[in-house]
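Fold it.
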Amino acid sequence: MSRIQCERCLRPQTHCLCPLIPSLDSRTRVVLLQHPSEVGHALNTAKLAALGLRNAELRVGEVFEDLPALIATPGYRVALLFPGEDAQVLQAYSAQAQALPWLLVVPDGTWRKARKLLHVNPLLAALPRVTLSEVLPSRYRLRKAPGEGALSTLEAVVQALNVLEAPVLFDELLKPFEALIEGQIAAMGREVFERNHLR
């Protein structure tokens, strides 16, 4: 018998995160493109980002045929939030005279799956890229990071918004994420967590 799920956060009702999910306004528009393999994942951070930001949208798929319409939102500069050699470092709006707000397109999946999304969506790969000048350490203690500076999708979005919209902070978005991680650690047992993840 399957457990009853919350229709909003997709967590079991006994572990619903909705009371912790904020509803935050942002100048920046965030479009999250999620690989289908992430949808059923217990740590679905893109879903938390979409639920916590009023100016965000989550799409699931591999090929996004409606991408031209998604990124054609007037009044925004469009960029892919993804590292790359030519990626422009994000700066606070206050440091840019009369700059249009960003529409950040954020691929969500493992690094391999995120790169696949770029490969099968040439328009996505062709977008100008933006990145963070300084990456704060990840709080994602349950997945091994593929390299230095790797973040979950939610953490990348929070850090980008904290830079762009300073002095406004979006750390409240991390509350359900931290509760989710603590819940997973409790479920597996502290001893198992320390043996398998604290290395």
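Helices lie at 45-52, 67-70, 111-120, 122-126, 153-164, 174-188, 190-197.
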